[in-house]
Write a sequence for this structure.
């Protein structure tokens, strides 16, 4: 209930910060982890795609981290 709402609020806050500062690769990884923990695979995949689009030089690291977390990368 209330704890779930607080967690969702924190995750959405992180997503908003990343929209303003998309170069934060660690932040994207944290967002993917959070979305997977919440069972939101599609949102984790969307975060992965946004992270790679914003940080193409780190594609290999992002892909590796996503695979570890179980995020679809295809």
């Amino acid at each position: 209930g209330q704890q779930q709402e607080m967690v969702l609020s924190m995750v959405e806050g992180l997503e908003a910060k990343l929209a303003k500062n998309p170069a934060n690769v660690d932040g994207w990884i944290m967002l993917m982890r959070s979305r997977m923990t919440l069972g939101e695979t599609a949102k984790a995949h969307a975060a992965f795609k946004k992270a790679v689009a914003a940080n193409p030089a780190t594609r290999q690291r992002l892909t590796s981290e996503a695979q570890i977390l179980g995020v679809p990368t295809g």
